[in-house]
Design a protein that fits this description.
Blueprint: E1 2-3, E2 7-16, E3 22-31, E4 36-45, H1 50-55, E5 61-78, E6 81-97, E7 100-115, E8 120-136, E9 144-155, E10 158-168, E11 171-180, E12 186-196, H2 197-201, H3 206-209, E13 216-218, E14 220-230, E15 238-252, E16 257-268, E17 272-282, E18 285-294, E19 301-306, E20 310-319, E21 322-332, E22 335-337
Antiparallel strand pairs: 1-2, 2-3, 3-4, 4-5, 5-6, 6-7, 7-8, 8-9, 9-10, 10-11, 11-12, 12-14, 13-15, 14-15, 15-16, 16-17, 17-18, 18-19, 19-20, 20-21, 21-22
Length: 338
Amino acid sequence: KFQKPPDLLFDGSLRLGEKPYARITLKGKWNLDLADYQFHFQSKSNRIPGWLLDYQKNHFLLLKKCRLILDVDLTSLEESRALFHAKADIDDGLLSLDKILFQGKILADAKGLFNFDTKAFERYIGNLDFVNVDVSNLSPEIPSVEAISGKILFQPDLLTIDSIRGQYQKLPFEATGRIRSFEKLLLEATIRVKADINQILLLTPEPQKKFLKGWLLQGNAEGISVVSGSLKKPPKLQMKNKLSLHGVSIKNPEQKIDLANFSAEVIQNEAGISIQHAKLTADKKIYALDLFIPNKPAAPGTLKLDSKEIRLSAAYHLEGPGVVIREAKGSFYGISSN
């Protein structure tokens, strides 16, 4: 429809495919003299069209399949450039970030500037909202997480994990962080878990599980893991773990240990396990404890135990199933010894 030429008005729709799989609606205005235009475009599709699959081939973020509702506003800035604002409702979607797969319902909102000469986005910013999404191929250590809900913000070379909630091995968690450099996929993330302590201890790395044998624990705990490194090199991802305990009971029948109201911070990293700022009750007496258990037998471990009656500090090494005390200092009711 022409109105006051050279203004060209568009208002209509069309279906795609012999057996229609999509409907496209277009509404807008185009000034042919000034190359000035404003369009509103809407598409409802039961699958991803072939041209969009081809266009995404060299992108780090790929939409592989879905039922899609797409709304786009396009406004000319210059003859070869246009401002855009796009919203997408991706249902039953399959989205890939390098080798990581996201499957479920995703809502997307993005805006920016597109250059038709270079066929590239000059700038953009947006967000992805996940609704009950399953994620797979994360890393060998964390192969998959389920029921993801939350928001990821994106812009060139940066993904920000605003607040993501989900489940890993039936444990609820919350994650925040960012991914820098779409070429290197550099991850910095903090993951928090609150649950029964025995559920959290199921995630303990295999080398440390030997220290848990024979121990019975009851109570709740909060686990915090900090992950960093490149998602393109999963074996080299670095992970630091901290477990906060409050009012936990600890028993070892074989060693006749019965501790109540145990509170502490347990930190695990490449060097070993540290128990810091621990408070506990044994035989109705209150003790403070700091303990370091090294991963390597050759590395020294340390122990510090304090109460009203006793004060003990020691350095030791692990040898086989036992412990060798290298140096110790203590005092009992004011009597000191080395």
